[in-house]
Amino acid sequence: MTEKTHENRIAVVTGAAQGIGRELAVRLAARGAKVALVDLKKPVETASLIGDTAIAIEADISNESGWKHVAQFVERDLGEVDIVVNNAGIYPNIVIDELDLDVWRRTFAVNLDAHYFSAKQFLPSMRRKKWGRFVNFSSNSIGIAITGLSHYMAAKMGVIGFIRGLANDVAADGITVNAILPALTNTPGTSGVPDEFKKSVWQQQAIKRFAEPADIAGPVLFLTSDDAAFVTGQALVVDGGQYKIS
């Protein structure tokens, strides 16, 4: 029987239509949370896996109006938000010679600006309740040299700076803010990655296999629980031992 570690909590998960976001949303619900599932297209399939304790919301989380839209539906249908997981991300592979400003700005808007907007939207109610959890997705790629991802790595490094600053701003109100740095993970989003490249990634890991969404969801469940009340401002690398601290 699954332990109800998140009972009566209300969580927002972005990028919930598939992959890590879907896995995490289903597992949060199994632990007692009510979950708002957010994606560019309404994640109805994920909602159907969960049932009555989930709502599906179509929204662009890269801007303030998108987050206001999310908040309107969550507060109307579920209540005040306790947990935000900023999982949604984009990673267009473009070398600097071909990288235009629109792609640069869109990459930052989805991968970093969204985290700022979510905090501005939900911190007031979390402060009133003296409890809240933010888990923002960065990437282990910030410590690995990968061609064509300078914009992506810059945004994901920005996530680390943001969570560390924000953690200090809100700690007195019982709110924690942490980051997850996942490995290349077996999701629909990585289905087009060549097998040769996947193998080269595994060879650098201590655990010689592709990361699965469940491998990433487990640590997020911990960070969004009461058990992680004394963990904040941390960047947790979940990559099978690929990223070596130097």
From TrEMBL:
Pfam families: adh_short_C2. It comes from the Bacteria. CDD domains: SDR_c. Gene3D superfamilies: NAD(P)-binding Rossmann-like Domain. Signal peptide: none annotated. InterPro entries: NAD(P)-bd_dom_sf, SDR, SDR_fam. Belongs to the short-chain dehydrogenases/reductases (SDR) family. This is SDR family oxidoreductase.
